[in-house]
């Protein structure tokens, strides 16, 4: 089954709006794990707008009590991410090329220009026992470059798909993701996916793009939780994953 990693950034963002220390990202993590999530994703930024260094330590300690659960720390390895990776040695680190002031991640790596900076950081993270995933646009040629750099996985940036899905143009967009996924699998890369995936578009994506191992979902899931509750919302997303995989089995 495709793993669901819940991004807790928006929980921390709400917490940081006041000085009351609520809602607690650690408590939120406990709830989503109890509800069946397979992992926790956090994206600590240099400005600490949501996840703080103390959150990284506390969540890493929590996950140690869940042997089947993975901690994924994502962010730009050129902007202090490696300090967190060295401190807690997460199961996976996802390198994302976001700028310091960026509102959110909005593009994948340009490996033609970024490769030389990334290569030693990928090797260092792997030496610490971390799986390394590169946040990438759905470009089949770039998958080959990612593997040559030594990455273990790629995370396909899915906002373009989400936008196409919202306007009824999903089929054409999915062709690019299918081609990128085939290329990634051919060269031995694992495939993750994330950004703007939600209950409306998740199942179609997973039923159409072969080989996805993990989806990381934060904004939409936390927004849905305001209506349905956090634990129940995790169940709704897991149901969408199961629905996609049922569709794949029926096609076979």
Percent of residues in beta strands: 15-25%
Q: For the record, what CATH class applies?
A: Alpha Beta
- Approximate shape: globular
Q: Provide the succession of SSEs.
A: EHHEHEHEHEHEHHEHEHH
The CATH architecture name reads Alpha-Beta Barrel
Q: Please give the order of strands in the largest beta sheet.
A: 1-2-3-4-5-6-7-8
Number of domains: 1
- How widely separated are the two ends? 16 Å
The proportion of residues forming helix, as a percent range, comes to: 40-55%
- Parts with pLDDT < 50 across at least 5 consecutive residues: none
User: Which structural class do the helices and strands define?
Assistant: alpha/beta
User: What number is the mean pLDDT?
Assistant: 95
Total of helices? 11
Cα gyration radius (Å): 17 Å
Q: Can you say what the CATH homologous superfamily is? A: Aldolase class I
């Amino acid at each position: 089954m495709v793993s669901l990693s819940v991004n807790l950034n928006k929980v921390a963002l709400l917490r940081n709006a006041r000085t009351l220390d609520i809602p607690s990202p650690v408590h939120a993590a406990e709830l989503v794990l109890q509800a069946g999530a397979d992992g926790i994703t956090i994206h600590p930024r240099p400005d600490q707008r949501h996840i703080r260094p103390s959150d990284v330590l506390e969540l890493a300690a929590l996950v140690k009590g869940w042997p089947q659960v993975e901690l994924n720390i994502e962010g730009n390895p050129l902007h202090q991410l490696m300090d967190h990776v060295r401190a807690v040695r997460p199961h996976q680190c996802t390198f994302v090329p976001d700028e310091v002031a960026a509102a959110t991640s909005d593009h994948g790596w340009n490996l033609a220009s970024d490769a030389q900076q990334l290569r030693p950081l990928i090797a260092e993270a792997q030496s610490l026992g971390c799986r390394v995933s590169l946040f990438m646009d759905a470009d089949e040629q770039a998958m080959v470059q990612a593997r040559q750099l030594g990455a273990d996985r790629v995370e396909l940036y899915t906002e373009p798909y989400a936008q196409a899905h919202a306007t009824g143009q999903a089929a054409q967009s999915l062709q690019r993701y299918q081609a990128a996924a085939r290329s990634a699998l051919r060269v031995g890369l694992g495939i993750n996916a994330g950004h703007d995936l939600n209950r409306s578009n998740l199942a179609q994506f997973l039923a159409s793009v072969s080989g996805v191992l993990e989806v990381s979902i934060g904004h939409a899931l936390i927004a849905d939780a305001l209506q349905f509750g956090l634990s129940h919302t995790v169940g709704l997303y897991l149901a969408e994953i199961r629905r996609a995989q049922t569709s794949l089995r029926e096609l076979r």
